[in-house]
Every structure is written in structure tokens, then in C-alpha cells.
Amino acid sequence: MLKHTVLQRSFIHISVASLKKGPLNLKGKSPADKRWLVRQLSDPFVKAAHTQNYRCRSAFKLLEIDDKFNILRPGHSVIDCGAAPGAWSQVAVQRVNSTGEHMENPRGTVVGIDLLRITPLDGAHFLSNQDITDPATEAQLLSLLPDARADVILSDMAPNASGLRELDHERLINLCLSVVGLAEKVLRPGGSLLCKYWDGALAHKLQTNLSQLFQDVRTIKPKASRKESAELFYLARTFRKR
Ligand SMILES: C[S@@+](CC[C@H](N)C(=O)[O-])C[C@H]1O[C@@H](n2cnc3c(N)ncnc32)[C@H](O)[C@@H]1O
């Protein structure tokens, strides 16, 4: 587990623990960076992530969704796409018992992938510095999954924001569509897929693809997802192969 939750925004890296020691030196920071820091520091999910040892606040989005829909179960194999810094993987490790801590329950598997380096986590296999859309990544992924199959695919991926809303939306939808392609290859019948997207004109295309493959597809906006963000999630359950 991480000792400190880290506030990250481009070049700002400040541990929450260090902020307790004294006033924050904002000298040299741009107004946008200052606004971002102030928002982070007053965010209850950032504080909760620190006290509960999650790597970032996004853990609470997955916790809320899983508390409601129970998609992560002991013994499950999970692929976490866009896993860095690793908060969703932390949740998945706990819920599927991939450390084997609860000996009365079956032991699951968690495999996380990211373009960035992911700090190691007990109970998870990480493919750092790997692109989910690269066929070479897929081959490695399959070798880490029992029977080369997954019960759940998670994607909290986000492309580097260009600032152009439509372009960023399209890029993220394309990433989601690659995740749907991955699901067709590795997901077990009955499996689930949870993916983040930014709302926009192409969302219906993603929804249509998901609806052809899953019995139940719904849109979710968890409480931990900031209201001002265009971020939404599709939860697709009960996979049925075409
Ligand atoms: C919002 S963060 C994920 C946070 C993570 N769910 C957590 O709880 O720690 C989005 C991540 O998606 C990753 N990403 C974007 N495009 C990717 C790709 N093509 N392949 C793998 N990871 C990607 C980014 O590097 C970034 O780390």
C-alpha cells in the first residue's frame, strides 16, 4: 500500500501528508494550477483516499459501482486498462481476493496495463509502459490470465487531453472500442465490462456496440465523479458472444 496519496497534475507532485506540515507554497504556479490544488485539497474523496490508503480518489468510483452491481467477486480474473497509478487495481485486488488473504474464498487474478509505469502492488500483475491497443500487449495479457480468459474488464483510460472537447471525446471512444474488441477475445460468457467515456456525439456508437454483445448496458455517473466533468461510465453486464 502507498504511504501517501499523491496529488498529480502535470508537474505538480505533492503528497497529501506533506501538506499537513504547513502552508502550501504556491509561488510560481499558474492560476490554473492554483485552482486545481485548492480544489484537490478541499475534495473529501482526496482526503478519504489518503486515510484509506488508496492511490487516488478514483477508487471511490469503482467502489460505489461495485457496491451496487457486485461485478467483482472472489476468484474472478480482472483486466484493468489504464491502471496507473493503481487505485482501481487496489479495489479489484481486495474484491477478487487475488492476494489469497481470505483462504475460505477462491483466489482471483488482477492484471493492470498502462502507458505509464505502475508502482507494484501485492496481488496484481502490472504491464507498465504498454499500450492496450498494441497486439504485443494482448499476447502478454493472455499469458497472465488463467485459461487466457477474464471475467471482468475495467477501463478508466483517458488519453492526454488536447483541450479540444470533440477530439478528446473521439479519442476516448476509440480507446473504449479497442476495449470492446479485447472483450470479444477474452471475456467469459456472462462477464462484465466497465468503461469510462467522455460524453459526446459518438457515445451512441459505443453503446450500440456494447448492446450487441451484452444483455444489459447502462450509463453510470458515480458520486465521486465530479459534476462538472463530462465523464460517464458504461457498465455492460452478461456478455454473450456474437
Ligand atoms: C484516469 S487514469 C486511470 C486511473 C486508475 N483507474 C486508478 O484508479 O489509478 C487514466 C490512465 O489511462 C492511461 N492510458 C491512456 N491511454 C492508454 C493506452 N492506450 N494504453 C494503456 N493505458 C492508457 C493513462 O496513461 C492514464 O494513466
From TrEMBL:
Instruction: Give the Gene3D superfamilies listed for this entry.
Output: Vaccinia Virus protein VP39
Q: Which Pfam families match?
A: FtsJ
Q: Which GO terms describe its cellular component?
A: mitochondrial matrix
Keyword terms of this UniProt record: Methyltransferase, Mitochondrion, rRNA processing, S-adenosyl-L-methionine, Transferase, Transit peptide
- Is-annotated flag, keyword Methyltransferase? yes
Does DNA damage count among this protein's keywords? no
- Highest taxon in the source lineage: Eukaryota
- Where does it mainly reside? mitochondrion
Q: Where in the cell is it found?
A: Mitochondrion
UniProt similarity note? Belongs to the class I-like SAM-binding methyltransferase superfamily. RNA methyltransferase RlmE family.
- Protein function: S-adenosyl-L-methionine-dependent 2'-O-ribose methyltransferase that catalyzes the formation of 2'-O-methyluridine at position 1369 (Um1369) in the 16S mitochondrial large subunit ribosomal RNA (mtLSU rRNA), a universally conserved modification in the peptidyl transferase domain of the mtLSU rRNA. This activity may require prior 2'-O-methylguanosine modification at position 1370 (Gm1370) by MRM3. Essential for late-stage assembly of mtLSU required for efficient translation of mitochondrial DNA encoded proteins; methyltransferase activity is not required for this function.
Quote the protein name from its UniProt record: rRNA methyltransferase 2, mitochondrial
**Organism from which the protein derives:** Chanos chanos
Q: What is the phylogenetic placement of the source species in the record?
A: Eukaryota, Metazoa, Chordata, Craniata, Vertebrata
